[in-house]
RNA sequence: GCCCUCAUCGUCUAGGGGUCUAGGACACCAGGUUUUCAUCCUGGCGGCAGGGGUUCGAAUCCCCUUGAGGGUACCA
């Protein structure tokens, strides 16, 4: 399947991966899948101070969880490796040398302090902070003198002498043009021997034969610099597409550390379903245009087009994600939801391994009932609690009063009899029993339902009574009814 | 400061000159189902940032203003 369509997702492992990054990965994946191309996972770890292997593992793990499989890259291999930038230094060096030879780059010995001073002075004078090019034409003696001082040079890209327009042809935004005069001689190799982002990204994308560069809008302003490098090296330009950013509740670029965490791992740990997150992320900046928003992976791949992506930023709306996730939870195979819910139940202490072993079917019934009310699976325990613990009234005296009411005993006793009359106590059967109760007994609906619910669940509200009774079974219900009556007599 | 981008209900969006008294989804509100909560169904509230043009006719095209965001690092 080689049609020269190649995309890449190049995260830097300097933090846990969040919604913003993953949405970019998703869009790249979608284009690759749809155009029958390949997706490359490249790790941009040139920031030695902040990159860690641990974060790299997290990225891979979370992509896998969401089903965003790469065809090539770190952890997978391929013909264009290595795929970690720190393992590609020789390559960057090689192309940097070419630039040096062709006169497109030069060594700069200015220290960070000198640069900072220069920048500050410019800002103070209300001028644009740009590198002044003082090392542009150093003599051999000056160079030697600096080296004798022990200064480690950086490599700077030399801007074209003549001012010119640099046009980024963007699939989403159309042509965006920049004047070279707003750029300065930017650094392509750091003094620690690492390439800078703008340089490495060009070398990698070119050498890895990337055809489509799909990335966040925050990279748009850097693109002209990269285009200059492509040109200086005689590389062919890829297609560019700059995605709108995902914003936080304050409409600012999503931070790695916000009020509400947006790390992918936390969504997983809270019991969000990967397909729900997938669906939701796809709709951040893109839409099919018609009314249905619950879309399968296939439908999304089928209908996605990078050209249809929005230009404006999208606020991450957790409410909508919750709604969507709830939909998916209700629609999913019960078995799977049970498997995914068990760890939460275990953690809550409501059940233990042995209990699960012996009561899996019963737990499945409970979970099935309770899943209608949750947004994510970590909410299962609190919803399931009333099925898994004994009755405890918040206020026993008040409860007792409720049970002392006229006809309550009659209702309870009749209910018991009718339950035992049934072969199978399905929710439908219980429904019929309640109807009979209402018809045969001369009591109001409230007298039937409210005390019954209280006696059985200890609460004033909760899942539907017919389901609760069906799930517990006649015997347990009878016990609870009796206990309630007893409470009434003793208070 | 300078450069770039963006601008439709609170939020995600449809809309690419007339069919828009602007459609859908989430949230919210009301009603129905469930004599509870939730689910589910129905209905409602709510928006083209402002000002100029162009045009017989602008949410749609152009300009300005305003606002928001991004970039301007030996971060990526």
TrEMBL record:
<dbReference type="InterPro" id="IPR020058">
    <property type="entry name" value="Glu/Gln-tRNA-synth_Ib_cat-dom"/>
</dbReference>
<keyword id="KW-0067">ATP-binding</keyword>
<dbReference type="GO" id="GO:0004818">
    <property type="term" value="F:glutamate-tRNA ligase activity"/>
</dbReference>
<dbReference type="InterPro" id="IPR049940">
    <property type="entry name" value="GluQ/Sye"/>
</dbReference>
<dbReference type="GO" id="GO:0000049">
    <property type="term" value="F:tRNA binding"/>
</dbReference>
<keyword id="KW-0547">Nucleotide-binding</keyword>
<keyword id="KW-0436">Ligase</keyword>
<dbReference type="InterPro" id="IPR008925">
    <property type="entry name" value="aa_tRNA-synth_I_cd-bd_sf"/>
</dbReference>
<feature type="domain" description="Glutamyl/glutaminyl-tRNA synthetase class Ib catalytic">
    <location>
        <begin position="5"/>
        <end position="323"/>
    </location>
</feature>
<dbReference type="InterPro" id="IPR014729">
    <property type="entry name" value="Rossmann-like_a/b/a_fold"/>
</dbReference>
<dbReference type="GO" id="GO:0005829">
    <property type="term" value="C:cytosol"/>
</dbReference>
<dbReference type="Pfam" id="PF19269">
    <property type="entry name" value="Anticodon_2"/>
</dbReference>
<comment type="similarity">
    <text>Belongs to the class-I aminoacyl-tRNA synthetase family. Glutamate--tRNA ligase type 1 subfamily.</text>
</comment>
<comment type="subunit">
    <text>Monomer.</text>
</comment>
<dbReference type="InterPro" id="IPR045462">
    <property type="entry name" value="aa-tRNA-synth_I_cd-bd"/>
</dbReference>
<feature type="short sequence motif" description="'HIGH' region">
    <location>
        <begin position="11"/>
        <end position="21"/>
    </location>
</feature>
<dbReference type="InterPro" id="IPR020752">
    <property type="entry name" value="Glu-tRNA-synth_I_codon-bd_sub1"/>
</dbReference>
<protein>
    <recommendedName>
        <fullName>Glutamate--tRNA ligase</fullName>
        <ecNumber>6.1.1.17</ecNumber>
    </recommendedName>
</protein>
<dbReference type="InterPro" id="IPR001412">
    <property type="entry name" value="aa-tRNA-synth_I_CS"/>
</dbReference>
<keyword id="KW-0030">Aminoacyl-tRNA synthetase</keyword>
<comment type="function">
    <text>Catalyzes the attachment of glutamate to tRNA(Glu) in a two-step reaction: glutamate is first activated by ATP to form Glu-AMP and then transferred to the acceptor end of tRNA(Glu).</text>
</comment>
<dbReference type="InterPro" id="IPR020751">
    <property type="entry name" value="aa-tRNA-synth_I_codon-bd_sub2"/>
</dbReference>
<dbReference type="GO" id="GO:0005524">
    <property type="term" value="F:ATP binding"/>
</dbReference>
<dbReference type="InterPro" id="IPR033910">
    <property type="entry name" value="GluRS_core"/>
</dbReference>
<keyword id="KW-0648">Protein biosynthesis</keyword>
<feature type="binding site">
    <location>
        <position position="256"/>
    </location>
    <ligand>
        <name>ATP</name>
    </ligand>
</feature>
<dbReference type="InterPro" id="IPR000924">
    <property type="entry name" value="Glu/Gln-tRNA-synth"/>
</dbReference>
<keyword id="KW-0963">Cytoplasm</keyword>
<dbReference type="GO" id="GO:0006424">
    <property type="term" value="P:glutamyl-tRNA aminoacylation"/>
</dbReference>
<dbReference type="Pfam" id="PF00749">
    <property type="entry name" value="tRNA-synt_1c"/>
</dbReference>
<dbReference type="GO" id="GO:0008270">
    <property type="term" value="F:zinc ion binding"/>
</dbReference>
<feature type="domain" description="Aminoacyl-tRNA synthetase class I anticodon-binding">
    <location>
        <begin position="339"/>
        <end position="485"/>
    </location>
</feature>
<dbReference type="InterPro" id="IPR004527">
    <property type="entry name" value="Glu-tRNA-ligase_bac/mito"/>
</dbReference>
């Amino acid at each position: 399947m080689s049609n020269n369509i190649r995309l890449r997702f190049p995260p830097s492992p300097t933090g846990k991966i969040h919604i913003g990054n993953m949405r970019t990965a998703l869009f790249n994946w979608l284009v690759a899948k749809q155009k029958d191309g390949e997706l490359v996972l490249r790790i941009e770890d040139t920031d030695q101070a902040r990159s860690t292997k641990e974060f790299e593992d997290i990225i891979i793990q979370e992509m896998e969880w969401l089903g965003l499989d790469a065809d090539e890259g770190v952890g997978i291999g391929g013909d264009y490796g290595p795929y970690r930038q720190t393992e590609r230094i020789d390559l960057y060096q090689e192309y940097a040398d070419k630039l040096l030879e062709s006169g497109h780059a030069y060594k700069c010995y200015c220290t960070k302090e000198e640069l900072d001073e220069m920048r500050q002075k410019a800002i103070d004078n209300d001028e644009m902070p740009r590198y002044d090019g003082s090392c542009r034409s150093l003599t051999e003696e000056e160079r030697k003198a600096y080296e004798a001082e022990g200064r480690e040079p950086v490599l700077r890209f030399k801007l074209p002498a003549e001012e010119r327009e640099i046009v980024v042809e963007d699939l989403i935004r159309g042509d965006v043009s920049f004047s070279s005069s707003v750029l300065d001689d930017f650094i392509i190799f750091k003094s620690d021997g690492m390439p800078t982002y703008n340089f490495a990204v060009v070398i990698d994308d070119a050498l890895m034969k990337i055809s489509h560069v799909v990335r966040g809008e925050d990279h748009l302003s850097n693109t002209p610099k990269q285009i200059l490098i492509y040109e200086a090296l005689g590389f062919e330009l890829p297609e560019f597409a700059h995605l709108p950013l995902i914003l936080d509740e304050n409409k600012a670029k999503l931070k790695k550390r916000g009020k509400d965490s947006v790390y992918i791992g936390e969504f997983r740990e809270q019991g969000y379903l990967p397909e729900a997150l997938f669906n939701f992320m796809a709709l951040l900046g893109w839409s099919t245009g018609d009314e249905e928003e619950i879309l399968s992976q296939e439908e999304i791949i089928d209908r996605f087009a990078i050209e249809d992506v929005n230009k404006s930023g999208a606020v991450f709306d957790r409410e909508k994600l919750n709604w969507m996730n709830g939909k998916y939870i209700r629609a999913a195979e019960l078995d799977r939801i049970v498997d995914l819910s068990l760890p939460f139940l275990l953690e809550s202490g409501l059940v233990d391994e042995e209990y699960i072993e012996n009561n899996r079917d019963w737990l499945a019934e409970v979970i099935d009932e309770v899943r209608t009310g949750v947004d994510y699976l970590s909410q299962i325990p609190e919803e399931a609690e009333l099925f898994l613990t004994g009755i405890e009234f918040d206020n026993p005296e008040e409860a007792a009063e409720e049970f002392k009411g006229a006809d309550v005993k009659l209702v309870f006793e009749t209910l018991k009899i009718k339950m035992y009359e049934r072969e199978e106590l399905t929710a439908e059967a219980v429904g019929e029993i309640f109807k009979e109760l209402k018809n045969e007994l001369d009591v109001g609906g409230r007298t039937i339902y409210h005390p019954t619910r209280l006696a059985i669940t200890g609460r004033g509200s909760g899942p539907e009574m017919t389901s609760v009774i069906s799930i517990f079974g006649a015997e347990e219900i009878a016990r609870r009814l009796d206990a309630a009556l007893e409470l009434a007599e003793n208070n």
